[in-house]
Amino acid sequence: MADLVLTTFDWVPETPRGYVRDLRLRWALEEAGLPYRVDSTPFRERKPAHFDHQPFGQVPWLTDGDLSIFESGAILHHLGMRSERVLPTDPHGRNEAIKWLFAALNSVEAASLPWSIFVFSGLTGDTPGWKRLDEFLESRLQHVEPVLAAREWLAGDFSVADIAMADVLRLVDRFDRLENHPACRAYVARATTRPAFVRAHADQMAHFSAAD
Amino acid sequence: MADLVLTTFDWVPETPRGYVRDLRLRWALEEAGLPYRVDSTPFRERKPAHFDHQPFGQVPWLTDGDLSIFESGAILHHLGMRSERVLPTDPHGRNEAIKWLFAALNSVEAASLPWSIFVFSGLTGDTPGWKRLDEFLESRLQHVEPVLAAREWLAGDFSVADIAMADVLRLVDRFDRLENHPACRAYVARATTRPAFVRAHADQMAHFSAAD
């Protein structure tokens, strides 16, 4: 019996498949070797019980016994506390992993998310707004590039920081925006050939296509 | 002798004063009652040593003995681990605080930051891009509103989650964007009248104006 239950949508449209954030947690759970099962919540009709677990009406959330956790970053943090396979236990390694976990979400994804919203909304024309968002993303990628050129993983061994950072950069790479950032691109390739990622990705794809 | 050293810029222009992110850490340190001192790094000329501590060339960073930590979220997390005055110790309270800390940064600030970049860049005209970013922010505020209407602080007692969330919402409130979200607005007012915030804010203002 798995104590850990990861909840995602029952179905999503084609475009986000392979990129829904439960992927980050499937990946971490596979890396950690923790037993878990996946549950579903309706995509089309979001009920009050959904908001009790995830106040923004999004996915995923994780239950661990009587704890219910939302936010992929918070769940990655929780899984790191449960398994040293995804979070170093020595103070320096742990500090590296936790600061880069926050950096992936609050410095890099804070720039890549609005950028991707403009991409998905067809707002990438020659406007000052699009230019400003693209510059903002570029300013982050420029600083991540030398870091990833100098190390294999962000905190020494592979950790939850890499799951967050690689998943954030993977969406940018989907639109060829890492072309001039070869270390970022190589890092995404390195991370996404890990067996745990491959399993997590295949499982998410199978989960959503089973509902078609 | 303070083990904790918080580094911020030596000077910034008028507009960001009172909103530079060292404020979050000054606030947490004041709430926790931990001794600390503030150090400066040049705003105009960012040297390699700066990037060693903060790879994006921003501020703040905190040193705690031989640990150097960047990202305001990671530093809040670290200070929470050091003081139960800003992070509950029971598993449920701690879970609430950590998930809302990530939510403030990755769900709310990920929407408010691009929105504020458009505001500061004068890109708030009648364009599809601005409309899309404003809708994105609205979609977050709508879900935060009932949460803040139902509780005084996010995790029971005041915690680092409130420092992050109140500071994120405070910038939105600066531009009157909380007008239709009275619980968010009341929460910002409640948080920013705490003596620790008032001291932290006055200290930041004094720090930057001393360099004029």
Structural features, described:
In chain A, 58% of the residues lie in helices and 9% in strands. With 212 residues, chain A is of the alpha+beta class. In chain A, strands 2-1-3-4 form a four-stranded mixed beta sheet, with helices on one face. The longest helix of chain A is centred in the middle third of the chain and has 30 residues. At the A-B interface, strand 4, helix 3, helix 4 and helix 5 of A face strand 4, helix 3, helix 4 and helix 5 of B.
Average pLDDT of chain A works out at 97
Principal-axis shape of chain A equals globular
Order of helices and strands of chain A: EHEHEEHHHHHH
- Count helical runs of chain A: 8
**Low-pLDDT segments of chain A:** none
CATH topology of the largest domain in chain A: Glutathione S-transferase Yfyf (Class Pi), Chain A, domain 2
Largest sheet of chain A: 4 strands, mixed
Distance between the termini of chain A: 28 Å
Beta fraction of the residues of chain A?
5-15%
User: What is the level-2 CATH architecture name of the largest domain in chain A?
Assistant: Up-down Bundle
Pairing-aware structural class of the strands and helices of chain A?
alpha+beta
Q: How many structural domains can be distinguished in the coordinates of chain A?
A: 2
Radius of gyration of chain A equals 17 Å
Regarding quaternary structure, what we see is homodimer
Percent helix range of chain A: 55-70%
Number of strands of chain A: 4
